[in-house]
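Reviewer comment 2.1 asked that we show a complete input and output for one of the modelled complexes. We chose the pyridoxal-5'-phosphate case, as it is the one discussed in the main text.
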Amino acid sequence: MRGMPVDIEAVRRDFPILARQVHGKRLVYLDNAATTQKPAAVIEALDRYYRNYNANVHRSVHKLAEEATLAYESARQEVARFLNAARPEEVVFTSGTTEALNLVAYAWGRANVRAGDAIVYTDIEHHSNLVPWQLLAEAVGAEIRVVEVDPEAGLDLDRLEAVLDERVRLVTLPHISNVLGLELPVAEVARRAHQVGAVVVVDAAQSAPQQPIDVQALGCDFLALSGHKLYGPTGIGVLWGRYELLAAMPPFLGGGEMIRRVGLTRSTFADPPARFEAGTPKIAGAIGLGAAVEYLEGLGMDRVAAHDRALAAQAHEALLEVPGVTVYGPPPDRRAGLVAFSLDDIHAHDLASLVDTEGVAIRAGHHCCMPLHDRLGVPATARASFAVYNGPDDIEALVRAVHAARKVFNR
Ligand code: PLP
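Response of the prediction step:
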């Protein structure tokens, strides 16, 4: 497939799962915003760890433990480089975006947000960036202020300004919406939030797999991502935090390895990142994530971004040609790598099930964004989301499958 920023044929050979068939058809996997498939480099890194040097980290002095610790800490360095973090100690391994956001809400939030303070977020958040703040606000008596985002035009910074004052302790937002494929202007939001002394938390679950992330250029204070959406294993994620903030935060979970000294009635705690990695960490997951990041760097994140966006723009335009289709979000030229849509009054689940019989995997539902779907006035949408192994042939397969579904419903 010439003309695409990524050599799709070569990339497809790196992903063993793409050799399988679904319902007798070639697998067309377009559910990448839910989770991506894994390249052989990641599967082999996990296999090597379990076959050759499986051991706990930071504890024992034997050879296997030394190798496992080295691989685990090298993965932290890889991720730090991937995010352009100032130092590897700013990278805390979590189980995913959800845990990373909860970590900030509990550890930073309960130490820094008081009754009468305000928390700001948008109306397009994933539930994992809504519920932890609602729990925090309820626990401490803080106020929640919601900034409306126009699904097509994006975030109007004047609307943000309208809710910012010295009572705002925290502003949080998604870098890319998992429903709209809309990118929000994080750097500008951070600049304005900092003027009132607020801390800025970025949900990068969808942006980290799709475009280069530079936490220093973004100017945010915390950023969360999930390994499984980044071509890595499930059960691993990252909280990146500015070191001074992490160092001033109390722990989230208590247990082994996060301590400096434990007494029977009081304990003191290790420096970050250990302070936030209680118990045996996700060793295999971190090693797998390190391999995923290395794989993506080999492709080049600029190229990955251009590739995913080109496909999403093509899909947006092609779907609009299908009678009865509504596409949600910004126009094709401003769209990140996913497209949510509906077809007449057909329920998205029925549509996705029919599309699946053609071997095309898409997602249907509210995508953990109920308030946004309320705003869009639909209970559910279908969503096609793109990754490095997708090509124009996958979009053709999707559009063919949507046409076939129309026929089934006599449209
Ligand atoms: N934020 C966004 C924008 C997402 O798309 C997702 C996952 O779909 C999450 C947060 C939660 O990620 P996880 O379930 O991996 O913790």
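The longest strand covers residues 168-174. We note this here for comparison with the apo prediction described in Section 3.2.
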